[in-house]
Design a protein that fits this description.
It contains 7 helices and 11 strands. The radius of gyration is 18 Å and the shape is globular.
């Protein structure tokens, strides 16, 4: 299966990969072969970046030789403009090529990557809980806790929230959280103090493919509605201002 994956949770990531068929042994993570990928770290130039990235990816000889099968996109939570640009691009590719498009929450991909890293260090078990905290700007983070669900998926423990980093640090200390992941940890060092720090990102375009395929095989729907959690910074006025 050939898949385009887009993540615009912070910077911009776009890749095309081939996924191996479904496995009977669920203890090993799914094999994915990356055919082409591009990324940029600027959190304010998603729209300008995605078009050239997509054009380059789709014309790459390794990609163009075989039809695409699906599109996977991050659904957030993330800042409004970047998330919208990624989802619009994903939906446009899907519509133009008559492909299914599947959404994966950005924090879910971060959690799965963190659990992969922890497993490589020999520290993951079925009861391990990872706190994910990604940059939400305004000295806040998007936060949720996870544990592993098989080799390719995660289970979220509670709702995703947006809160001040200082408040999350207090909650983690009170709850005895020892493992934390996400881009918020790099911005707010108090989140990582005395804890194992993993996956310093806001999303992962490759890992989200594994999550999407695991959920599709389990019969889950993967909607592409964005998770904003709060309104955009720029608002359309609801009343007309009066000037003298």
């Amino acid at each position: 299966m050939r898949i385009v994956s887009i993540d615009s949770s912070l910077g911009t990531q776009l890749l095309v990969c081939d996924a191996a068929p479904a496995r009977t042994d669920q203890t090993q993570e799914r094999a994915l072969t990356v055919l082409t990928r591009a990324a940029q770290e600027d959190s304010r130039h998603h729209a300008e970046s995605l078009g050239p990235m997509l054009a380059q990816a789709l014309t790459d000889p390794a990609v163009a030789a075989q039809p695409l099968d699906a599109v996977v996109a991050a659904t957030g939570p993330a800042p409004f403009t970047g998330l919208r640009a990624g989802l619009v691009t994903a939906r446009t590719v899907a519509r133009a090529r008559d492909l299914p498009v599947h959404g994966v929450e950005s924090l879910d991909a971060v959690a799965r990557r963190a659990l992969d890293e922890l497993a490589q260090q020999g520290g993951e078990d079925e009861h391990c809980v990872v706190q994910v905290a990604t940059d939400a700007r305004r000295k806040e983070v998007y936060a949720a806790r996870y544990r592993a669900k098989g080799a390719d998926d995660v289970e979220r423990l509670g709702e995703i929230s947006v809160l001040p980093s200082a408040r999350l640090a207090e909650v983690m200390s009170a709850d005895g959280v020892t493992v934390v992941a996400g881009s918020g940890v790099g911005l707010y060092p108090e989140l990582g103090e005395g804890r194992t720090v993993l996956a310093p990102v806001s999303g992962d375009a490759l890992v989200q493919v594994r999550v999407a395929l695991a959920r599709l095989e389990a019969g889950q729907e993967l909607p592409t509605e964005p998770l904003y959690l709060r309104h955009a910074d720029v608002q359309v006025p609801t009343t007309r201002k009066r000037y003298r």
